[in-house]
Design brief:
Its main location: other. This protein is mostly helical. It has one domain. It is built from three helices and no strands. It starts with a helix and ends with a helix.
C-alpha cells in the first residue's frame, strides 16, 4: 500500500501532538510533582490546625468543638506527614 506524503505528514503531526500531551501528563504525575503536592497538603493541614488552636486561645470556639476538630485535623496532618516521609524514603532508596 502506498502512503501519500500528505497523509504521512498529517500522521506525524498527530503523533507529535500526542507525544507532547503524554509528556505533559507524565510530568504532572512524576514522583517529584506528587511529593511536592503531598508536602503542600501536609503544610495546609498543619496551618489549619494552628488556626483552630489560635481560635481556641482567643476563646472563639468552645472546648468540645475544638477537641473534636483539632483531633481530626492533627490526624490528617500526621497521616500525610508519615506518607510523605515514607514516599521520600522509598524514592531515595
Amino acid at each position: 500500500m502506498i502512503i501519500r506524503t500528505s497523509e504521512l505528514a498529517d500522521a506525524l503531526e498527530k503523533l507529535n501532538d500526542l507525544e507532547r500531551q503524554k509528556e505533559g501528563i507524565m510530568k504532572c504525575y512524576s514522583t517529584a510533582s506528587l511529593l511536592h503536592c503531598l508536602k503542600e497538603a501536609v503544610n495546609k493541614a498543619d496551618e489549619e490546625s494552628e488556626a483552630l488552636h489560635r481560635q481556641f486561645l482567643d476563646k472563639e470556639i468552645e472546648l468540645g468543638a475544638f477537641i473534636q476538630k483539632y483531633k481530626k485535623l492533627r490526624s490528617v496532618y500526621h497521616r500525610r506527614a508519615l506518607t510523605h516521609l515514607a514516599a521520600t524514603a522509598s524514592s531515595v532508596g
